[in-house]
Amino acid sequence: MTGSLEIICQVSIESPASVYSNLNQEQPRSTSISTAELEKQQSFSSQSQPLCTVIIGAGVIGLSLAYELALRGRRVKLIDQGQIGQGSSWAGAGILPAVATHSIVDPLEQLRSFSHELHSQWAQQLRSQTGIDTGFRRCGGLYVARSKTEAATLVANELWWREHGVISQRVYEKDISNLEPSLMPLVASGQVIAAWYLPDECQVRNPRHLKALALACLQMGVQLCPNWAGTELIIRSNQAAIRDSSGELIPAKQICICSGAWARLHLEQMQLRSGIMPIRGQMILYRLDKPLLQRIVNEGHRYLVPRDDGRILAGSSEEEVGYRVATTPEIIDQLHVWASGLCPALTRDKIEKTWAGLRPGSFDGLPYLGSVPGATNLFLAAGHFRAGLHLSCATAVMMADLMDGRKPDIDLDPFRVGRG
Fold this sequence. Notes:
Layout: H1 35-48, E1 53-56, H2 60-71, E2 76-79, H3 87-91, E3 95-96, H4 107-130, E4 137-138, E5 141-145, H5 148-163, E6 169-170, H6 173-179, H7 184-188, E7 194-198, E8 202-203, H8 206-219, E9 223-225, E10 232-236, E11 239-243, E12 249-250, E13 254-257, H9 263-268, E14 277-286, E15 296-299, E16 302-306, E17 312-315, H10 329-342, E18 351-361, E19 368-371, E20 378-382, H11 388-403
Parallel strand pairs: 1-2, 1-13, 2-9, 5-15, 13-20
Antiparallel strand pairs: 3-8, 4-8, 5-7, 6-7, 10-11, 11-12, 14-17, 14-18, 15-16, 16-17, 19-20
């Protein structure tokens, strides 16, 4: 595609005002796509030849699968009940934890390791193709413990890291202060019982990554269709089909559900049960005049993620509240108390935005990847919980292989749909 591009069909990859805070600062310089360009591509695709694949859900999993399939020459239509690149994909912190490099037997760890490798490649590809810097950085991660329980967890983690080739280094008070001078008050307080540094921890800026994927997909002819409310999945004669709000069927040779926590509802339309459940997480964005931290700081399931522009993300919570997406004063206050306890410079007046998102949890902690029983053309890729962004690249490759009729390099049986 050549010429200047304007923003498409509201694919600005920013948060809807009704659900998330608008983080313009988390966006790169505007790379936009015109509505006319979108309509032109949709008209060409619909008139010239039938669609092969419809993907439901335009978060990071759906966009990544659309991107991978388009690279393989597939004709793809990507639909979403809301905007493109929203939901938990937009709301996350973008942490890519260090991964195992050898003795990898567990299929989940194989998936994680492969995806970690792909992220750096995709970041380069997307920047070359779209001009968007996704914010992929090898920044390193600091893991601290202020309780005996958390210290014991880190000791156990060290054994696992060592066995699987994850580079880690135990650090002490002086080391912490040298790595992150802003944590000197924490060190001086004597609260830190144990700490480790993992240099291979990485991050991406979720909104930029999603925006790059959306633009790359559009450049390769993928139809991006936001605001498809009322879409219904049906099964007839072992074939799945999609009926839109007007009652018309959308022609599709294959369909893949990638709608995160909402995948549960899509499956229930066809009387199919799953172990997918929505888990709400809340976040705080702090704005500082200059960078305060260089590395991700982790304590248990909470974290501080520094951005190059001085902003710091603090998260997160885990709440089973159904499909309610909203922040609460209690959780935001808990997060702030925790964050300022680690780094006193994160005062309440530095809070710029807060928001919430729904992670797609599963009953056993594993995502669902595979074909859906009862329909030969229906697939599911959802339930990644906190690791959706991290696992997205490998998920796309494995699902594309499966949908192409190839045997994936990673055993997907532990992730099969209908287990449990």
